[in-house]
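Discrete fold record:
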Amino acid sequence: MLVDGGTSTMFWSYTWSITGQFFIVLSLAEMASMAPTAGGQYHWVSEFAPGRYQKALSYTSGWLSSTCWESFVASDCMFAAQLIFALVQLQNPDFEIHNYYTALTSILIGTIVTAINVWGAKKLALLENVFVTLHVASFLVVLVTVAVASPKNDAKEVFTTFADNGGNYPLMGLAVMVGQVPAMWNVLASDAVAHLSEEVKNASVVTPKTMFWAYMLNIPLAFAMLLVFVFAMTDVEAAVGEAFPFVWILQNSLSTAGAQAITAIMFILVFMIAVSCFASTSRQLFAFARDNGMPFPTWLKKVNPQLNVAANSCFVTWGYTVVMSLIYIGSPIAFNAIISLAIVALMATYAISIACVLWRRIVHPSTLPPVYWSLGRWGIAVNTLGLVYAIFAFFWAFWPIYWKPTADEMNWAIVIFTGVMLISAVNYVLSAHKMYTGPVATCEGRKEG
């Protein structure tokens, strides 16, 4: 976003991304209260879609949701690996980072994350509580340290000056739209808690409340951090030239030791996110396999009786991270496309599920179940705004950072997205059309449509 629009794009794109995602969170929380299940979006689509489209839309949503969550895990592990080498370069600026260093470190991190989720599954709830405490404490440490120590940018530069820093788009408005993609990425994954619903007592009450308050807690922290960093970014061109602009800010504000300490804290935060993300991802994959939406469903949905966890789904998630990390060796650009892929796929699932519940709310409102977390009379408005934002984000996530990009600069998300859809279509033709009926093929009170 610094390339396309500078700090003003960073600030305003975060502002409207936070606002748009808020309506998605409200919509998802209500659906999670109606049907608290590990399947999340594909289950909700099966519940609320018109009968004739129920099976196809649910199946498509399941594949999209699985794809985006697998991509989240791979990207979190890669980001954690990159932070390790950012630490190394802070100590030794002449250290040359080869792609395979980062890739192998990403695989190592993915392996540790997998081990925690498989063999430490029984302690995962305790770990999550520890993570939440560390998350807030670490955020505050970084926030206060950078706010106090960094030089300050001019307010006019931060809020009203949009600049082309290499994207070369002919219209600044177009550049700003393209530059918003990282902001979308940072406010995503609001459905993470929903995929853990089957392990929560009184899930129809606890899950939506947790989704809502997790968002409401994180957004002020993220917004405060955003303000601190955009004001600390006194030389955008210099920051753009760095692999990690925030590391440039730390170097410009603190001693080497201080910059290393803050970077280490950020590594811990990203690692914790990877562990939590892995938990949601493996359960989403397990749930979809349980409904015969994936190849080899019997093997994928098998639960290890000693560990009480779907270990095979965990190992597949680890395998996806390994493959994506190996791709990074040959082409970091191709790997980076999975960030856009995750946005595209997740926004598609948001759009489909919200559209289905909106349709049912308008056409067959009496068939919506009683719900603890209800949007009430605001339901149509909230669902509509969430749907519009999801479609808006889906569209822009395909765009490349640079105008007239070379092959190395191209956003290859469209190619990967098409490939995933083709694989899902082949699986559907070969087996899933017989085996997959959707988790709610026939549910009393939802037969209309």
Notes: Residues 442-449 have pLDDT under 50 and may be disordered. The first helix runs from residue 6 to 34.
